[in-house]
Design brief:
The protein is α+β, with helices and mostly antiparallel strands. The protein is 18% helix and 29% strand. The protein has eleven helices and 24 strands. The strands form four sheets. It has a ten-stranded mixed sheet, sandwiched between helices. Strands 14, 15, 16, 18, 21, 23 and 24 form a seven-stranded antiparallel sheet that branches. It has a five-stranded antiparallel sheet with strand order 8-20-19-22-17. α9 links the parallel β11 and β12. α1 crosses α9 and α2 crosses α3. The C terminus is likely disordered.
């Protein structure tokens, strides 16, 4: 039995007044109201709805509220339904639209509200902003979601007749057993050597003494309840959105999927402002000094971080909530090119002038601008008893470690392909795509592709990654792997490297090798994987660059 750490609600901040806000079905949600210097005159409000304890140290909402109050905002922080000081069932995602509407309605009827509401927050409390948009409350004037997506946390859905799908995250089933078990949180770690993983979950539930409604909704027979009144958030009336994504955020694919959906709707695109920063999910930045990369930040460190976290949203709200300025004052796309300082601006993403170039893997372990004329196969082994480890212990805080991934490439179950050093800097600015013909001796194959920057000293840092799952893998297929969007300067003298492998544990649930679903599988089997190198079906990587790679030795 793993150690279970039980975490209950922290005391309400002395800066706040706690209210019990009634929803349409009678459930009351714990809600902290922060008023500037006790001023209860009407003013603009910023709403933050989260499941991580509105008063707890993890999200430091009292410090955020203090910073926002200094700018004249009334701040409302609320535990979502079923969490910490709020009543109701702890059911992931599905109540946030109605509860968002009802909370905004309560705000605008308070004497300290002038009827204008904005929302801010990361991850799940970025998701609650999109859910509130879907409710179409007219008082919601602007949102500033960070590192989130409208399909946040949704288990992988496999489409009938389609052989490829996503690879399931390890957190998918752990999240409703830890953060979202019930009102309190219960933290424990999965034992990688004990199968089935589902049995460990049942042991934990017995030890806690109650079921998790959200876990039972998803396993073993998933029920996908509707999240929003319409099929998509973006069917709703557009609301101005400052949409922040992190280059190293493990949830970035969900954010970019929303960007793509927005771009298909002109009325939404007009109200969408993109901001991309060199950070991960937990707001560690690639340029943070090493001594400041600590898991538990001090209050002084948090306060020093607040301007970077909050000022872009405050500038945005100044225009779209307070009407001080014009929409053209906000850059349509603001982005940092990792490896450089400051934010750049462009009218679109990728930035104008970006071009695509393709590099090819070769059987000698190199990357080249030229493909080999004929194809050949390279193989590796997937052994469920000896999994390729995730490079960072916490995928959400990848930049806390910024791990050297070179040692992973030396494993027998990882294929590596490396370019020659670049003679000048090259800026990668846009999507990265891998295409390859793959197969397995097993029925299901997970195919991980990692793009790395190799420094002259041999250290290898991740630039981008993607993965795909192939069913009926013994018959093979050509797969298309989206490694996401990149904004990265590859310095002169550095090299590009690709890693290929078939597990990344514990970040992703590993294939047992038998075709059973990974969470409930008991038996395991070793599989032998194959990728074609060279020829028309050989492994290739399509990069988007600001300057063409003509003349480079790759």
């Amino acid at each position: 039995m793993p150690e279970i750490v039980h975490v209950g609600p922290a005391p309400v901040s002395p800066l706040a007044r706690e209210e019990r806000v009634r929803m349409r079905d009678g459930v009351r949600l714990g809600t902290d109201v922060y008023l500037p210097a006790g001023d209860d005159s009407p003013g603009d409000a910023i709403l933050i709805r989260l499941p991580y304890d509105k008063s707890g140290p993890y999200t430091f909402i009292p410090l955020i509220a203090e910073y926002l109050m200094a700018r004249g905002y009334r701040v409302v922080a609320q535990d979502v339904r079923g969490k910490f000081r709020s009543e109701g069932d702890a059911l992931l995602f599905v109540n946030e639209s109605d509860d968002g509407y009802d909370t905004i309605e309560w705000i605008v009827n308070q004497p300290w509200s002038n009827g204008r509401v904005a929302m801010w927050g990361d991850s799940y409390y970025g998701y609650t902003q999109w859910a509130a948009v879907a409710s179409q409350h007219p008082a919601l004037k602007a949102i500033a979601p960070r590192v989130t997506g409208t399909q946040l946390g949704e288990p992988v859905r496999r489409v009938a007749g389609r052989r490829t799908s996503g690879v399931e995250w390890g957190i998918t089933y752990l999240y409703p057993l830890t953060y979202f078990h019930s009102r309190d949180a219960y933290f424990w770690e999965l034992d990688p050597d004990r199968r089935p993983f589902s049995a460990q979950a049942e042991d934990v539930l017995r030890e806690i003494g109650s079921r998790s409604l959200s876990y039972d909704q998803w396993y073993p027979r998933p029920v996908h309840l509707p999240r929003f009144p319409s099929a998509s958030v973006f069917d709703a009336r557009p609301v101005p959105a400052l949409h922040t994504i992190g280059w190293w955020d493990n949830c970035a694919p969900l954010s970019w999927a929303d960007v793509a959906a927005i771009e298909e709707r002109p009325e939404w695109a007009l109200n969408h402002f993109l901001r991309v920063e060199s950070m991960d999910h937990e707001s560690y930045y690639v340029d943070d000094p090493l001594e400041e990369r600590v898991e538990e930040r001090t209050e002084e460190q948090i306060r020093a971080q607040l301007p970077r976290m909050l000022d872009p949203a405050l500038e945005f709200f100044e225009v779209f909530v307070r009407a001080n300025g014009r929409a053209t004052d906000i850059p349509r796309v603001a982005w940092n090119l990792a490896g450089t300082t400051g934010m750049r601006q462009s009218d679109a993403w990728p930035p104008p002038g970006a071009q695509t170039r393709t590099v090819f893997a070769r059987t000698d372990g190199t990357l080249s601008l030229d493909a080999a004329a004929s194809g050949a196969a390279l193989t590796w082994t997937h052994d469920p008893g000896a999994l390729v480890p995730s490079s960072a212990p916490n995928a959400f805080a990848y930049l806390l470690e910024l791990p050297d991934e070179a040692p992973i490439g030396s494993r027998d179950d990882v294929l590596a392909f490396t370019s020659d050093p670049f003679v000048r800097p090259v800026d990668l600015t846009g999507p990265v795509i891998a295409d390859a013909e793959i197969s397995s001796t097993g029925p299901v194959m997970d195919f991980f592709v990692r793009l790395l920057d190799v420094a002259p000293d041999g250290t290898a840092r991740r630039i981008a990654r993607g993965q795909v799952q192939l069913a009926d893998a013994d018959s093979g297929a050509t797969v298309h792997v989206d490694l996401g969007q990149v904004g990265y300067r590859l310095a002169a003298g550095h090299r590009l490297r690709i890693h290929l492998h078939s597990s990344d544990f514990p970040e992703f649930l590993p294939q047992p090798g038998t075709g059973e679903e990974p969470w409930g599988a008991v038996a395991t089997a070793v599989n032998h994987q194959r990728v074609t190198i060279g020829g028309d079906a050989g492994l290739r990587l399509t990069l988007t660059v600001s300057d063409p790679l003509e003349g480079e030795s790759v």
